Amino acid sequence: QVQLVESGGGLVQPGGSLTLSCKASGLTFNNIYRSWHRQAPGKERERVAGITRTTGITTYLDTVAGRLTIHRDQNQNTACLQMNDLRDDDPAVYYCNAGEYWGQGSKVTVTS
């Protein structure tokens, strides 16, 4: 069974940091583009970061560039999203993606 299992969501204060992790199982995802998306209440899901399968080139949503970093560990089939300097417009449920597969979602809350 193919699965993407996320971990690491939670509650932080403005300016705080969190790291989300997405571990794949049931399939080798090393050759698949990996990305993170988020969906806030009442809004459409948007892609916040992506990393190419072979060259490791990363792309980011403009509003998160410089604060969020995506990276992948090829050996463990894991993709992570390091989130720094979290702001009031970052709270959402964050989802990892690999091809047709999605993680279960990780809630990120930013509140003082």
Task: Give the secondary structure arrangement, pairings included.
Elements (H helix, E strand, L loop, with lengths): L2 E5 L2 E3 L5 E8 L8 E6 L6 E6 L6 E3 L7 E6 L4 E6 L8 E7 L2 E2 L3 E5 L2
Parallel strand pairs: 2-11
Antiparallel strand pairs: 1-3, 3-8, 4-5, 4-9, 5-6, 7-8, 9-10, 9-11
What gap, in angstroms, lies between the N and C termini? 40 Å
Q: Please, what is the average pLDDT?
A: 93
Question: What overall form do the CA principal axes indicate?
Answer: globular
Give the helix tally: 0
Q: Total number of β-strand segments?
A: 11
What's the helix-strand series?
Answer: EEEEEEEEEEE
Helix content: under 10%
Based on helices, strands and strand pairing, what is the structural class?
Answer: mainly beta
Share of β-strand residues: over 45%
Molecular structure report:
The relative contact order is 0.33. With 112 residues, this protein is mostly beta strands. A hairpin with a 2-residue loop joins strand 9 and strand 10. The chain has no helices and eleven strands. It is globular and about 40 Å long. The termini are far apart. Strands 2, 4, 5, 6, 9, 10 and 11 form a seven-stranded mixed β-sheet that branches.
Question: What would you say about this model in short?
Answer:
The chain contains no helices and 11 strands.
Please name the defining characteristics of this protein.
mainly beta; 4-stranded antiparallel beta sheet
